[in-house]
Amino acid sequence: MRAYRLLAHSLTRALARIALLSLLCLSISVGSAAAQTPVDLELVLAIDVSGSVDPDEAKLQRNGYVQALLNPKVQAAIRGGPFGRISATYVEWAGESHQHIVVPWTELSDPASVERFAAIVAEAPMMTEQWTSISAVIDYAVPLFGNNGFEGTRRVIDISGDGENNRGRPVEEARDAAVARGITINGLPILNDRPNPWGGAAPNDLEGYYRDHVIGGPGAFLVPARDFDAFADAILSKLLLEVSGVQPAGRGRDFAVR
Question: 169, 100, 105, 101: which is closest to 134 by C-alpha?
Answer without folding.
Answer: 169
